[in-house]
Design brief:
The chain is of the alpha/beta class. The chain has one domain: NADP-dependent oxidoreductase domain (TIM Barrel, Alpha-Beta Barrel). 43% of the residues lie in helices and 16% in strands. It contains eleven helices and ten strands. It has an eight-stranded parallel barrel, surrounded by five helices. It has a two-stranded antiparallel sheet with strand order 1-2. Strand 6, helix 4 and strand 7 form a beta-alpha-beta unit. It is globular and about 55 Å long. The chain binds NADP nicotinamide-adenine-dinucleotide phosphate. It holds the Pfam family Aldo_ket_red. Belongs to the aldo/keto reductase family. InterPro entries: AKR, NAD(P)_OxRdtase_dom_sf, NADP_OxRdtase_dom. Keywords: NADP, Oxidoreductase.
């Protein structure tokens, strides 16, 4: 597995497996199968509600001797109401306990709302004690990331943001490169939106190499130096999505993919008032 070195010297796999929206009863098996297929980076979050099951899949893979804990790179995230100094401290401990782990390889502030500065202080403290090897943020626009780097002594190692052929984030990546904050792509397939998996341009590019659309997209992210998280519950697709290190997209292919950029989210804008309102209402409903 190809690796990337973060700004604090920690290395991580460039391709990973995400467990968002996997039904609870399937999560442990999916994580186990993903590790069996060769994935070493596993991405969950407290709001996904499946940290327990993710931990179970990891434990089974370790117990059966497929991997050691040190070979895995496990990520979790704190959500909006956990974004304060005290709550973050508690939530880190809770994530570790829930997953049955003594440390996490990466811990992120999931959304750019709440007392993110207080949460960051607790994350920095947990990093110093070795409970978190790397720390970062998610869904921060470039301007917010720059502010956050400017006003903290320890800068994020990662910003996990939406990146896919419809929302390529080229300028955002340049800003992140400037500040040495690694871009990690969520929803690399845009969850199939805008008919991604049957897109003629992507299919034609893949045909030249005997590769699928999914493989072209992930390979494109690898060649851009972006860490990518792909989700699937199907073992055959887990194998397909990881078989991307035996071909290289040409400059011409890359230009064709660049032309697909709509420069807008396939989901929502984190700064849109309606979206922030949706998050706030949901928070009050769930008290999560
Ligand atoms: N930080 C954040 O705010 C945030 C937000 C969203 C996601 N994430 C992370 O990023 C990970 C990935 O994003 P995502 O799960 O939203 O979306 P995604 O990976 O872009 O897309 C997943 C969808 O694609 C399908 N799929 C996967 N491989 C395929 C293939 N080779 N051929 C055809 N279909 C395929 C899956 O179906 P099947 O499962 O049926 O195969 C699923 O419906 C998440 O699991 C999560 O860890 C983070």
């Amino acid at each position: 597995m190809q690796t990337i070195t973060l700004n604090n010297g920690v290395t991580m796999p460039q391709l990973g497996f995400g467990v968002y929206q996997i039904p609870l009863e399937e999560t442990a098996e999916a994580v186990y199968q993903a590790i069996k297929a060769g994935y070493r980076l596993i991405d969950t979050a407290s709001i996904y509600g499946n940290e327990t099951e993710t931990g179970e899949g990891i434990k089974r893979a370790i117990t059966e001797g497929l991997v050691t804990r040190e070979e895995l790179f496990v990520t979790s995230k704190l959500f909006i109401l956990q974004a304060s100094e005290d709550k973050a401290k508690e939530t880190i401990e809770l994530s570790l306990e829930t997953m049955g782990l003594t440390y996490l390889d990466l811990y992120l502030i999931h959304q750019p709302y709440g007392d993110i500065y207080g949460a960051w202080r607790s994350m920095v403290a947990a990093q110093k004690t070795g409970k978190l090897r790397a720390i970062g943020v998610s869904n921060f626009k470039s301007a917010k990331m720059i502010e956050f780097v400017g006003l903290n002594e320890v800068k994020p190692q990662i910003n996990q943001i939406e990146v896919n052929p419809w929302n390529q984030r080229v300028e955002d990546q340049e800003w992140h490169d400037k500040y040495d904050v690694q871009v990690e792509a969520w929803a690399p397939f845009a969850e199939g939106r805008h008919d991604l998996f049957t897109n003629p341009t992507l299919a034609e590019i893949g045909k030249q190499y005997g590769k699928t659309v999914g493989q072209v997209v992930l390979r494109w992210l690898m060649q851009r130096g972006i860490v990518a998280l792909a989700k699937t519950v199907r073992p055959e697709r887990m194998a397909e999505n990881i078989a991307i290190f035996d071909f290289e997209l040409s400059q011409e292919d890359i230009e064709k993919i660049a032309a697909l950029d709509k420069k807008e989210s396939a989901f929502f804008d984190h700064d849109a008032p309606q979206q922030v309102e949706w998050f706030m209402e949901r928070m009050l409903d769930t008290e999560n």
